[in-house]
Amino acid sequence: MTFIDKHPDLTLHQRVVLFHEVFNQPVPNAPTMDAPMKAHHRKIMREEYMELEDAADDNDMVEFVDGLVDTLVTAHSRAAGHGLNLDKFIPFVTESNMSKLGEDGKPVYYDNGEKAGKGPNYFAPTELIKAEIERQRREGSHYE
Fold it and tell me: Residue 77: CB partners within 8 Å, gap ≥ 6?
């Protein structure tokens, strides 16, 4: 029986926390910038990103997908190492990104159409992120 078979319903955050626990890596239960493995996670993120870019340059779809997932998991692992449940922040950033639409509900672009611009209803996710950090400090970050 595989790990996935044993734990089919875990969120990505829960899977990452379980990995940290099994491999004896610290996982604070509240947000902190004083992460014991900060340098290690920084190094791993750089390595995973470079592997992703190499796969893209090589047009290797399998390695590209593996690199994307590794990058995503590594970002969640780094967040967990800082006592953050990253899953809880994704809706705020997604809503902020969608607020970039123009009044007509269509995308606004700049840089010759290569980057999404900010429509008139744009809002930054900053205050929502701050509030969630405080909530995770009060309640712990391992809740679901």
Answer: 16, 19, 20, 41, 44
